[in-house]
């Protein structure tokens, strides 16, 4: 491919009647979708990656980014990805579980103590397990998962200081059985709502709270519709970069390698960006009006255990998957 381009360029120079500067149409015009605004590090790093891919494939692979759910809410775009209407999509493994049930295992409540454990697990056996499940479902997945972060809890009515504050609490959760189960175990009233509708749901009072990492609270300007922010760290969440199998197979092997290398390198940079944001945003969010409080995770985890949450999910995921999770976090749940 690159050779052909070189020949075309040489010909253009040698034959001045061929107008220079005419863009050669890309052979592969693909789309990548996600739910985050352009200023989120996911899209900052993705823009660099698609520029490098275009360059390194000699203009052959042109991937356009559709941020902020421009192509639809997450659960709709997952359908488009499977049908081939969109070629690439970044999605939380926990939402992906609506198609690949065991993909959500990293989201088990209070499983991960810190980022070190997360990256060892997700770049190790637990990530490999999830990718295997995703591939079995007929999707392509890049090796490196991108960071969303440890999820924190916001509210318009009261700070969440312990599990009792969650009883009867009307909280938005992303669309996924694991999230619904988690808040049902707390005795809360969870409502499944795609991210695209979260701001409006909070603004109109359909729900009183939601949970997300700090970087998302910032780009979604959630202080405008929420007051309290409790550092519950109840779950780590990321984004798998998924691909449609036919669209992937259509790419020449050399281009596949370029795309995978660029996406995985971008994931590493995005992780560093998002970790820094999640660690450093408290001051900024406080100055926007959020009232922060820290919580002890222990009573929350105890409450989940009492409610049978861990037993239920061990049974749902199965012994093999559960053993991989427990090995990754170095303790039993
Ligand atoms: O929907 C959410 O809350 C978000 C942005 O965190 C996910 O993609 C799971």
TrEMBL record:
<keyword id="KW-0574">Periplasm</keyword>
<dbReference type="InterPro" id="IPR038404">
    <property type="entry name" value="TRAP_DctP_sf"/>
</dbReference>
<dbReference type="InterPro" id="IPR006311">
    <property type="entry name" value="TAT_signal"/>
</dbReference>
<dbReference type="InterPro" id="IPR018389">
    <property type="entry name" value="DctP_fam"/>
</dbReference>
<dbReference type="Pfam" id="PF03480">
    <property type="entry name" value="DctP"/>
</dbReference>
<keyword id="KW-0732">Signal</keyword>
<feature type="signal peptide">
    <location>
        <begin position="1"/>
        <end position="25"/>
    </location>
</feature>
<protein>
    <submittedName>
        <fullName>TRAP transporter substrate-binding protein</fullName>
    </submittedName>
</protein>
<keyword id="KW-0813">Transport</keyword>
<comment type="similarity">
    <text>Belongs to the bacterial solute-binding protein 7 family.</text>
</comment>
<dbReference type="InterPro" id="IPR004682">
    <property type="entry name" value="TRAP_DctP"/>
</dbReference>
